[in-house]
Amino acid sequence: MTLPSLLAVAQTTLSVDPRSIEAGLFWIPLIPMLAALFNALFSARIGKGSSAFIACGAVFASFMFALLAFACVFPADGTVLHQSLFTWFAVPAGASGPGVHIELAYAVDRLSSIMLLIITGVGFLIHVYSVSYMSEENGKNFARYFAYLNLFVGMMLTLVMGSNLLVLFVGWEGVGLASYLLIGYWWDDEAKAAAGRKAFVVNRIGDFGFLIGIFVLLSSVGTVSFYSVSKNAQGFTQAVHQPILERLAAATHQLPAVGQGPVLHVAGLASSHVLSGPFQGASWLFVVTLAVLLLFLGAAGKSAQIPLFVWLPDAMAGPTPVSALIHAATMVTAGVYMLCRLNYLVSAAPVAMIVIAFVGAGTALFAATIGMFQDDIKKVLAYSTVSQLGYMILGCGIGAYWAASLHLLTHAFFKACLFLGAGAVMHAMAGETNVWKLGGLRKHIPLTHWTFLIATVAITGVFPLSGFFSKDAILGIAHNAAWLGADWIPTALWAIGSAGAFCTAYYMFRIYFLTFWGERRSLQHHHAHEAGLMTGPLVVLAFLAVVASIWGMPFFAESAHGLAWTSDGQTLWKLYLNPVFDPGQLSLIGRHAGEVEKGPWIGWAIALAIGWAGAALAYVKFAVAPSTNLAAERPVGNPLVVLIKNKYYIDEIYDALVVRPVKTTAKVLWKFVDQGIIDGVLVGGWAFFTNLFAGMLRVLQNGSAQRYAAAMAIGLVIILFASPARDFLLQFFGH
Amino acid sequence: MVPASWAAAVAGMMLAIGVLGVLTRRSALVVFMSVELMLNAANLTFVAFAQARGDMSGHVMAFFVMAVAAAEAAVGLAVMIAVYRSRGTINVDEIDLMKN
């Protein structure tokens, strides 16, 4: 039985009535949130078993719902499940701009259905893993952990299912909150609480841009809805609209050809102007570019890109399963998801694309070089995540949305597996994370060793594991892209990305060899062991990291009989997501070659050679050399290495440029403005003058009845004689 | 027959002496006596003008004032005794609890 026929069978057996699924879409995010509420409210009263069962069960239930939703959008092209719960708010159209109508609505299309499966599926595995990993916490903290984790899952599902940018933003902020809570989970440790705060503040900077981007779209296009549907009398979806895309196409006079969806072309955007609102008179190209760049600022914050990546390495202060779920597999990919979701906008803004592509490629290489010299296994994985997110952002920036989202999927599997493996190592070695103090663990925790190796090979990009196809798809398309006549841009992007791939292979095999090979360098008598529920998720994720490669093999073609296997076809993933990414990809025609041409073989060979070269270098340096050689303690002479070892002093630069000026400003505001002006002059001034006048009036109230009587007598005299005295004066001066 | 103007002049002087006594004397008892002097100045005025006008209402008023003054004297002296018992003095300069 070949794969295409398997898929055909799956398509027929998975046909589900979409109406029943649509009516219950809101349960997907609601179930984990209810479980979070339960665990939060009753954390002191329920046992660990109950809170773990409720938390895992809720995510599993969501996973089942997500599978049903997936089964609905899987078979037919362009099916979108849509549920509109109520109108959130509405502003009528007026002189200040187009009207706004925002609904609390959920939509599931082919892209978000995959995200749902990642979030709930990987999320479920990590919940199960956490039960073992967090078993040493007391009952209340245990329930608190699962409350946060469930809150995260619920918010992430809201983010992915939101049918407009504002619902997405609700989830966007919600996952930020959950991330903050979980990074600072051990809040009594000052450094960990500070790491949570840093993550929150840095994310807020990005969110600020994101929010302004939403405002730009609202005030010009007038809608931020991804999808709206019209239904027939039976409740079946009749037509699916993409309001942002369609309104922009109408405003720029780019009516679609018969039988095709609307596509935004740069020329059309450049020649049309905004008719009303704050951007009146500006060209649509400017408005769209501005919006995309602002939204990308949000993505840079959430997806840890230059210059806002600094929070992610610190986020490793949270429990390791949190690093796996939030800071590797799901939350940090929200920015990539958002850019993929708005692919038609991104593709319509070439300047923004160049920025996005270079930021992505730059981050990929920059973070990878830092990862090469870190000694903390979780820090290496953190910089690795930043680097891999850079590849995804690069994919978005060159219009290879399918490749970016494929890398998102494969990365979710192998990076979650790596983090959980690191967690298993820590669990086995009494919380030790310094790779120079690990070593020789492959005999003691074999299952962790094998899954870690598989995931390492996958992220390194070795044929035929999943990371190879997804990363090489991005680099291949980057190399073949034609950028407005500038030939050096694709070459530069490819070169930066490939250099990053070399570093990736090096640092991954470095920590692999140092952790699992050689002799044990510390805690020799500690009994290293694997724990109960932690191995299952590792095996499942390693398995997925291998088999996910089927999505990335470019050997498929659509034919009359379904899918066919050819040597120069498309990837399954691209075919599957074409309905979502078509508008963005079509508008690139003429600017991009878009696809890997001339067969991928040469590019593959180069990528493979780069990957093996990095791995070989790590092997020579760390596997062959005597393991007792604690290289970490050797003084480093090379200034470049010193620079990279200190993470390019980025934290110090931020400290000098941002943190300290802000602190100084805050101190001035506190000491001078608040304590001086507000407390001293305004508040104190009122008190001072009130006191002064009161002191003057107090003299009058002396308690001496005789003086009161004297005042009365004098007053009486004045009253009695005022009138005659006036008459006398008038008479005297005789007016 | 004494003219009303003379009676009024005497009444004015009595009132002035009473006011000065109220305002300047320290002993509450003397202050009280000064008040009585002022009341009697008023009474003298009532009676003098009533006689001059041949009207009885002024006489009525004078008796009324005397009745009230008697009641006031009873209550006032009782208050003074009570004050003296609690504070040991009836010097009005020292009775200034209501100040500030």
What does this protein look like?
Chain A is mainly alpha-helical. In chain A, 66% of the residues lie in helices and 5% in strands. Chain A has 27 helices and six strands. Chain A has helices spanning 3-13, 18-23, 27-41, 48-73, 110-133, 139-161, 165-183, 190-220, 243-251, 266-271, 284-302, 311-314, 320-329, 334-341, 343-347, 350-372, 377-397, 401-428, 446-460, 466-480, 488-516, 535-547, 572-586, 601-624, 639-645, 650-698, 705-733, and strands spanning 81-91, 100-108, 228-231, 237-241, 556-559, 562-565. In chain A, the strands form three sheets. Chain A has a two-stranded antiparallel ribbon with strand order 1-2. In chain A, β3 and β4 form a beta hairpin. Chain A is globular, with a radius of gyration of 32 Å. The relative contact order of chain A is 0.08. The model of chain A has no long low-confidence stretch (mean pLDDT 85). With 100 residues, chain B is mainly α. Helices cover 78% and strands 0% of the residues of chain B. In chain B, α1 (4-24) packs antiparallel against α2 (28-53) and α2 (28-53) runs antiparallel to α3 (57-87). Chain B is elongated. Chain A binds chain B through residues 698, 701-706, 709-710, 713, and chain B through 19, 22-24, 31, 92-93, 95-100.
